[in-house]
Amino acid sequence: MEGQQVVRMARARSFCPQRIVVLLVLMAGCHGDSVVLHPAPVPLFEVSPSEGNAPLTVQFTDLSTGEITDWRWEFGDGAFSEERHPAHVYADVGSYSVSLAVKGPGGINTMRKNNFVLVGCADDDGDGVTVCDGDCDDGDTRVHPGQLEFFATPRGSGGYDFDCDGSTTLQYPVQGSCGPVPGCETVVDGWTCDSIPSCGEECWWFNGCALEPMGEPHCSEYAPTESRTQACR
């Protein structure tokens, strides 16, 4: 049977009468012809880290075996990648299932790991209010939703949104005052507003006092150069 392939099929019953084993034997021809079989690749992967606070950057590493020509990752948040070793940023809190499909000459296989990446919320300042709860400055215990205390340490921005409501409050909520006569010294430098101003309200800053010579002597504040309007974001 030179130049021909021989296919022999043997059908035999096993010890269990309900099962039939089919044996297919492929034999090479006399001229050395052969049949090349390509097994499908076997997917396998790992991630680092698998949990953390949002936004969380995760590195995905392919550990699959076999002959592979294509990769497709699905990260569980609607995003995907066709790189072999991609990185992905999870912006939102949640539990994410990840799948990897690998394709080669022998076919395609997929591995899925359910609830494999866990993304939580940060509470870096330890005030019990996380970013997920609306803490707009998680590096400062004095800033979080519902905060009633205004703190007066100056910042370069000129104000604070100390209760995370979207409005910026002036640096110094202190009302300036003068006195006493006859020294007329400045007791407190500050704004002419007597409380934390509302959005759009104008306040004057004074840093000195003037003695009014007419009539009964008294002191008055002056702010010859500077005023500020309460800004809102």
Outline the structure in words.
The protein is mostly beta strands. The protein folds into three domains: 1-35, no CATH class; 45-120, Immunoglobulins (Immunoglobulin-like); 151-233, no CATH class. It contains no helices and 19 strands. A five-stranded mixed beta sheet has the order 4-10-9-6-7, with no helix packed on it. The chain has a three-stranded antiparallel beta sheet with strand order 3-5-8, with no helix packed on it. Strands 15-16-19 form a three-stranded antiparallel beta sheet, with no helix packed on it. Strand 11 and strand 12 form a beta hairpin. The protein is rod-shaped and about 120 Å long. The model is unreliable at 1-30 and 152-157 (pLDDT under 50).
Question: Layout of helices and strands, plus pairs?
Answer:
Elements: E1 6-13, E2 20-27, E3 45-48, E4 51-53, E5 56-62, E6 70-74, E7 80-81, E8 87-90, E9 94-104, E10 107-120, E11 159-160, E12 169-170, E13 177-178, E14 186-188, E15 190-191, E16 202-206, E17 208-212, E18 218-222, E19 227-229
Parallel strand pairs: 4-10
Antiparallel strand pairs: 1-2, 3-5, 5-8, 6-7, 6-9, 9-10, 11-12, 13-14, 15-16, 16-19, 17-18
How do you describe this structure in short?
By secondary structure, the protein is mostly beta strands. Helices cover 0% and strands 41% of the residues.
